[in-house]
């Protein structure tokens, strides 16, 4: 497997020029996030990614997680890597200093997460979920609960999990059966079983804090009757010391296609009388609270798609530069396969999509920072709406694209990509889960259609597309032929996206099945076009730097060329997606079920 080296140069460009790091750093609470400090953070995180996490990726894939004598055993090196995380307080990077965190913006945390997900996705799931638990407790729990659980979760000494899914209730959380029975002391006895719980048990942390969805005895049916509970692996006293083992255990591990080193547990609560849990917030508002954690996870799973694609790109590029086979068309001699036209196409496709995904994810993260810290209420609300709109696109499009790019990475290797020796196959296997967990692509797409477009009658979508249109018109009038091409293709993509939104708005009242049938093509259309928007913004900056003769001119030339490639090879997908929406949706619903 090729050594991994984070692309910090491009990450810093996106942070500074597209995500607006300086603007975020000017917000209250983020004043320490200067470019110099962020550079130091990224350099050190990149070193950990390259030297600590990446070498364990193949090890973890081969050894996997195992359940031995009732305990989860993890691969060699996991304990040392976890200790590195705790000693560096990396889990606490985006959290307030009052709880032991670094107090840096979430957009910086996303950049760090990209490197770690690319280096070793199976390992990085653990701190990722712990951060999600911290977000939920910070926003939804009582002050007493925060005081008990946050200090050790923020430092990463304790781990956190999210317990939603049950065997009889997959994505339909309204069907969960786990019970919560009130006790005289204010606690609850939790009983039931949860499946697909990532890092549900392990020996890395001294305690694991489970956030569990359960139903009270008198709860109303469906999602309106779900409550959220804190269920610690070991009971915690008021002063933070650990007590007796709680009645919660991993009873089996799933055998999976990929991420073998990440223990995916079946968790049983209350086999010996009932696990002690503590209500978070108000009764029957559990789903609302859990979405605080879920939305954090969805952004970060989108970053997993990005990270896997970056790792697959580096792997494929290194192989293509060394592998010699055949004489490229038009060449006078045999050279490495990177000179073959189709290999160049594949490598540029991966590279361009990686840069588009990176920009879109970082922009969403920056908008979330503004939604959290911007003093002006109207600006906060606007940033929140934009981040909410981008969330399903980043999660759904980036994970689907990440898998496709990992598949292209295998293709670049040819037959060697299909065997485990090169490591390309692991990236493909690991990537497949990203489009499934934390809400499948269809769930993200339906969220985009129903909550982000139909709910506000397309207002947010139209606002985004209007901004895009202005840039497309500007670039289409540029003298640089590459900018002109970018602007022209972006305008075509924008028209396709705008027509798709209008079709959704008109189709929904006629037949609610039609928007559902068109939802995934719509999500992919939005991803392609919004990714193209970010690439166009990058191209404009690159052209200005080249004209001024400022900075790393080779980098800016490459950035402009990559944006041009994206416009000519990726953006033309937009009209095809529009056809799948406006014509294909009806075809989907017309075909009888017995013909499927």
How would you describe what is shown here?
The structure is a single chain. The chain is an alpha+beta fold and 596 residues long. It folds into 3 domains: 8-154, Acyl-CoA dehydrogenase/oxidase, N-terminal domain (Butyryl-Coa Dehydrogenase, subunit A, domain 1, Orthogonal Bundle); 158-284, Butyryl-CoA Dehydrogenase, subunit A, domain 2 (Beta Barrel); 440-596. The protein has helices at residues 8-18, 21-25, 35-63, 78-87, 106-119, 121-140, 143-155, 286-322, 341-373, 377-413, 415-418, 424-432, 441-454, 459-476, 481-510, 513-548, 553-569, 573-582, 584-590; strands spanning 66-68, 71-73, 158-163, 179-182, 188-198, 207-214, 227-232, 234-236, 242-245, 248-253, 264-269, 275-279. Strands 3, 4, 5, 6, 7, 10, 11 and 12 form an 8-stranded mixed beta sheet that branches. Strands 1-2 form a two-stranded antiparallel sheet. The longest helix has 37 residues, at 286-322. It is globular.
Question: Gist?
Answer:
By secondary structure, the protein is of the alpha+beta class. The protein contains 19 helices and twelve strands. The strands form three sheets. Strands 3, 4, 5, 6, 7, 10, 11 and 12 form an eight-stranded mixed sheet that branches.
């Amino acid at each position: 497997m090729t050594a991994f080296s984070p692309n910090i140069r491009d990450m810093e460009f996106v942070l500074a020029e597209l995500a607006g790091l300086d603007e975020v750093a000017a917000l209250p609470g983020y004043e320490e996030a200067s470019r110099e400090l962020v550079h130091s953070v990224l350099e050190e995180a990149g070193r950990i990614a390259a030297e600590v996490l990446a070498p364990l990726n193949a090890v973890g894939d081969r050894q996997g997680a195992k359940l031995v004598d009732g305990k989860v055993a993890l691969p060699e090196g996991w304990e040392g890597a976890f200790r590195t995380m705790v000693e560096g307080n990396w889990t606490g990077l985006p959290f307030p200093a009052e709880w032991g965190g670094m107090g840096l913006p979430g957009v910086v945390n996303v950049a760090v997460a990209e490197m770690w997900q690319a280096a070793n996705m199976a390992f990085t799931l653990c701190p990722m979920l712990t951060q999600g638990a911290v977000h939920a407790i910070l926003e939804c729990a009582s002050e007493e609960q925060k005081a008990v659980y946050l200090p050790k979760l923020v430092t990463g000494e304790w781990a956190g999990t999210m317990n939603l899914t049950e065997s009889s209730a997959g994505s339909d959380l309204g069907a969960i059966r786990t019970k919560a029975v009130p006790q005289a002391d204010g606690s609850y006895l939790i009983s039931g079983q949860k499946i697909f719980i990532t890092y549900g048990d392990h020996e890395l942390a001294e305690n694991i804090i489970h956030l569990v969805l359960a139903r009270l005895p008198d709860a109303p049916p469906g999602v309106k009757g779900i409550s959220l509970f804190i269920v610690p692996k070991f009971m915690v006293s008021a002063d933070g010391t650990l007590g007796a083992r709680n009645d919660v255990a991993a009873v089996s591990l799933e055998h999976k296609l990929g991420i073998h080193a990440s223990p995916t547990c079946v968790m049983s609560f209350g086999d010996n009388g009932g696990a002690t849990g503590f209500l978070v917030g108000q009764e029957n508002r559990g789903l609302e609270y859990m979405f605080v954690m879920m939305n954090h996870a969805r952004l970060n799973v989108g970053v997993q798609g990005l990270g896997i694609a970056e790792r697959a790109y580096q792997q494929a590029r290194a192989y293509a530069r060394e592998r010699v086979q055949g004489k490229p068309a038009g060449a006078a001699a045999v050279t490495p396969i990177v000179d073959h036209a189709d290999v160049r196409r594949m490598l540029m496709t991966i590279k361009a999509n990686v840069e588009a995904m990176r920009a879109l994810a970082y922009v969403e993260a920056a908008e979330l920072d503004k939604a959290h810290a911007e003093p002006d209420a109207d600006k906060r609300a606007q940033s929140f709406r934009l981040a909410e709109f981008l969330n399903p696109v980043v999660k759904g499009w980036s994970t689907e694209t990440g898998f496709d790019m990992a598949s292209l990475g295998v293709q670049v290797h040819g037959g060697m990509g299909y065997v485990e020796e090169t490591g390309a196959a692991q990236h493909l296997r690991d990537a497949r889960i990203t489009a499934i967990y934390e809400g499948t692509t269809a769930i993200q797409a339906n969220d985009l259609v129903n909550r982000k477009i139909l709910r506000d009658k397309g207002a947010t979508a139209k606002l985004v597309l209007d901004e895009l249109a202005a840039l497309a018109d500007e670039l289409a009038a540029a003298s640089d032929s590459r900018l002109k091409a970018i602007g022209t293709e972006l305008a075509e993509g924008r028209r396709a996206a705008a027509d798709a939104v209008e079709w959704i708005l008109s189709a929904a009242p006629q037949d609610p099945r039609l928007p559902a049938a068109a939802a995934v093509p719509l999500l992919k259309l939005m991803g392609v076009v919004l990714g193209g928007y970010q690439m166009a913004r990058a191209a404009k900056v690159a052209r200005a730097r080249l004209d001024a003769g400022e900075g790393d001119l080779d980098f800016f030339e490459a950035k402009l060329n990559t944006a041009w490639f994206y416009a000519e090879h990726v953006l033309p997908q937009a009209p095809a997606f529009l056809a799948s929406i406006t014509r294909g949706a009806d075809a989907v619903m017309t075909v009888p079920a017995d013909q499927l």
